[in-house]
Amino acid sequence: MKKNHFGNRAFLALIFLFLYAPIFVLIVFSFNATKSRTVWGGFSLQWYGRLFQDSAILSALQTTLLVSVLASLIAMLAGTAAAIGFAAMKRRSRHMLMSINNIPLTNADIVTGVSLSLLFMLAFAVFSTAQSWVNATFGTSLSFHWDKGFGTMLIAHVTFDIPYVILSVMPRLRQLDPHIYEAAQDLGARGFYAFRKVILPDLMPGIVNGVIIAFTMSVDDFVISYFTAGNKVSTLAMEVYSMARRRISPEINAISTLLFVSVLALLVIVNLRQARQDSAARHQKATLTPKQ
Amino acid sequence: MKNKGLAVPYVIWMAIFVVVPLILVVIYAFHDGTRFTPDNFRVMGTYAAVFGRSFLLAAIATLICILVGYPVAWFLAREGPGMRRIATILIMLPMWMNFLLRTYSWMSILENTGLLNTLFQKIGLITLVNSIFGTNFTYFPMINTQGAIVLGMVYNYLPFMILPIFTVIEKIDPQLIEAAQDLGANSAVVFHKLIFPLSVPGILSGITMVFVPSVATFAISRLLGGGMVTLLGDLIETQFLGGAYNPYLGSAISLVMMVIVLVCMAVMNRFGEGEEEAMLL
Asked: What stretches of chain B show up as alpha helix (H) in DSSP?
């Protein structure tokens, strides 16, 4: 394929400018001395200082990270197991289950959120009816009160995270040579040991990719959390949404800048390591190939 | 390694948290709290304007995403492997800053006294426009318009158009292109006869991934439309969490929206086989 002209490169640069302009604005105004989000009033770190005294934002950050980490880890385990199970099925049932698996991905977020919130509301109603029935019949005085909260939000996140893991593990499973596992067993490796030593290393890139996508989606989610979290817990996004009607405190800019910079740093480190490994591998290969 | 049993927990999970909730939406849509009735659909006519507006704005946003996203994917695919890798990361990276924050940031850019208007004023663009067209702008009204909402949709969902198209173009065998060139095809013919047809599955999954969330958005319209422009998402949201609490009507609106979207997608997919896996990196 032909390489790009200057014009094409300029177009790409323009699009990246478009994608990053709001992020740039957000970061710049996190250092603003005044509260304004459009007028620059000098450099200051005050919003970063205040951030660590703002318990609402800190707890929203904690909720966001906790729900994203837990949901993507659960999705990693459940999704990998499910993908292995699906791969063992007959074509027809696998096809059907994969279509159901894709529903949360293709459905609008708001429908997923609304439908789950209906389920939770109904479940709580059934639970409280059952409880009053038990109280009335057995003369007990149980007064558990269930409501939407962290638990329901976590369930929702797990539900939309698992499909991403499955979709990225599935292609890896299909590339596997089925005989390798049998060979390992013939050589005396028992079930799980053979799986861990032979299958898992091949699946690993798919699993890691899936977890990263799942985590990203959890961090980026607002709509589904908004419908399933109730009003006792809130994520950063929900905090932003409720503030947006009044005025968003620049502390939010500060915390997002911190998050963004940490992710950026993490990505740079991972990619540098990868690049170094790649070039080391290439180097090794070059020395192994006999010179002609 | 034939172990179907490993899928059982997830199959049960899907049944409870994917299938049952959708069935509930259908049941609620045909219910009014006391009995089954199609009443919810009778009042749907009052919302025809909202439906029309949502689908129109989403279609415009999707079209812009194709027109912009396709060249981006195509140019990126022609870069070297190092550059391609960095570019893919750069496209994903904004998602680590929650989309609401980025949308909120557009408010600062587009406001009447915002960054763009300040810039236009400084470089004299506003005065220029006023003198040419005899208008009397002190600022360009950009925020709280339908245009701003479309911009928000394009901004938020453009990566979902670029990535699937990029993935399919990247997978095209370079030898195929060389073969075409050997047979005398110039680059326009190569693109028209080879690359574009092969990238259709990417475009189709891109369309789904941009159109569906655009139709159903409510946060973007709330922030960039300033609550002046009601979209389907806003309508549904107010039925569940807002003042007009009526989950039955909300379910009915969601159901109608889902059905229209499904029909659109089915029609579209008749023109080519959409492959869900293309959407993953």
From this structure: 8-14, 20-29, 39-42, 48-77, 81-92, 99-110, 115-122, 125-133, 146-171, 174-182, 187-190, 196-216, 219-224, 232-240, 247-269
Do B202 and B168 touch, CB atoms closer than 8 A? yes
Q: Domains in chain B, ordered, with CATH?
A: 48-279 (1.10.3720.10)
User: DSSP for A117-142?
Assistant: HHHHHHHHHHHHHHHHHHHHHH----
A151 and A38 both lie in a single domain = no
Instruction: Provide the pLDDT for residue B243.
Output: 77
Of B143, B222, B78, the residue nearest A242 (C-alpha): B222
Q: Locate A250 and state its tokens.
A: 């620049």
Residue in B with minimal Cα distance to A209: B281
Domain that holds residue A84: 54-249
Please give the pLDDT value at position B226.
82
The reported pTM is 0.89
pLDDT at residue B2 tops 70: no
Domain identity same for A45 and A79: no
Segment 200-259 of chain B within 8 Å of chain A by CB: 208, 212-213, 215-219, 222-223, 233, 236-237, 240-241, 247, 250-251, 254, 257-258
Mean pLDDT of the B101-110 span = 90
Q: Is the ipTM of this complex over 0.95?
A: no
Is there a contact between A104 and B118 if contact means CB atoms under 8 Å apart?
no
Mark whether A116 and A243 lie in a shared domain.
yes
B273 inside 8 A of chain A by CB: no
Same domain, A208 and A98: yes
Provide CB contacts within 8 A for B108, sequence distance 6+.
A25, A29, A37, A38, B114, B115
B7, pLDDT greater than 80: yes
Name the minimum distance, in Å, from the CA of B81 to any CA of chain A: 11
Between chains, do B9 and A81 touch, taking CB under 8 Å as contact? yes
pLDDT of res. A289: 59
pLDDT of res. A233: 93
* Same domain assignment for residues A219 and A230: yes
User: How does pLDDT run across B215-256, given as a tens digit for each residue?
Assistant: 999 889 988 988 788 899 999 999 998 878 999 999 999 999
Give the closest residue to A126 by CA, choosing from A146, A140, A143, A156.
A146
- Domain annotation covers residue A263: no
The number of folded domains in chain A is 2
